[in-house]
């Protein structure tokens, strides 16, 4: 029997900025930025000898004003490392919106963390995000996403990490990412099958505005919900590409109006200005308009 993916609350994730937890100035600056979410990184961007200091920075940061209108996600070190367990203890104490797991290779990586959170009586609202950045992670991405199939599952979002994936596979960075597209689309298929979000990988050269624009357009066309960012200069372009355009909003509103007409009652397919429109397009249109309203309602940073 087919299972319908669980209904989840919708969150804007067009622009998800990664901020090193060791950088107090960058942490404070995140309050004034117009990104949708902030990843507070304890992993790759923090040297081993600075991990403890970075954790204390996050304690002070969470004791201060909240990030208005932004999700807060803490990226921890792997539980197999000497830092993972203490990072997870910090997560259970601070209660961010989500914990981001690095280098997820197997569904057990997700379910083990979920069990630990449950054992610590962490509220179910704290979600799990998973980095897909290894060959095994790509090969197992369907099974990993499947752990999010139930309404009580914490898994909420998959984040592609191409830097590690390129390193482990030997694929060279190239414009268009042609050799990586099949792997990226595997991630998209997996999240769409189980009602999750997927975020596209970082673009390393924040000075290359044109290249970033092209890659954002590609990611949006593939079906990603947004993009992980490394610099505030990338936020505006990500918000523009992964948010609905004025033309898309107008088209969606026209579809909604067409199905609201009394003549469309009981019909699954209608003719709108010479185009055949199905009710599945109505569902898509309503979701797009809802997203546009959420964007409009956001407080300016």
Biggest sheet overview? 8 strands, parallel, barrel
**Number of helical runs?**
12
Rounded to the nearest angstrom, the radius of gyration is 20 Å
Unreliable stretches covering 5 or more consecutive residues? none
* Beta strand count: 10
What's the CATH H-level homologous superfamily of the largest domain?
Phosphoenolpyruvate-binding domains
Mean pLDDT across the residues is: 93
Name the strands of the widest sheet in spatial order: 1-2-3-4-5-6-7-8
Shape: globular
CATH topology of the largest domain: TIM Barrel
Would you identify the CATH architecture of the largest domain?
A: Alpha-Beta Barrel
Oligomer: single chain
- What's the domain count? 2
SSE run: EHEHEHEHEHHEHHEHEHHEEH
GO molecular function: (S)-citramalyl-CoA lyase activity; metal ion binding
Cofactor: Mg(2+)
Keywords: Lyase, Magnesium, Metal-binding
Binding site for Mg(2+): 133, 164
Could you please describe the fold and organization of this structure?
The model has no long low-confidence stretch (mean pLDDT 93). The protein has helices spanning 24-29, 51-63, 84-94, 107-119, 135-139, 141-146, 162-169, 181-194, 209-222, 235-242, 246-260, 279-297; strands spanning 15-20, 37-41, 71-75, 98-101, 127-132, 155-160, 197-200, 226-229, 269-272, 275-278. With 301 residues, it is α/β, with parallel strands linked by helices. It has an eight-stranded parallel barrel with strand order 1-2-3-4-5-6-7-8, surrounded by four helices. A two-stranded antiparallel sheet has the order 9-10. It has twelve helices and ten strands. Residues 14-232 form the HpcH/HpaI aldolase/citrate lyase domain.
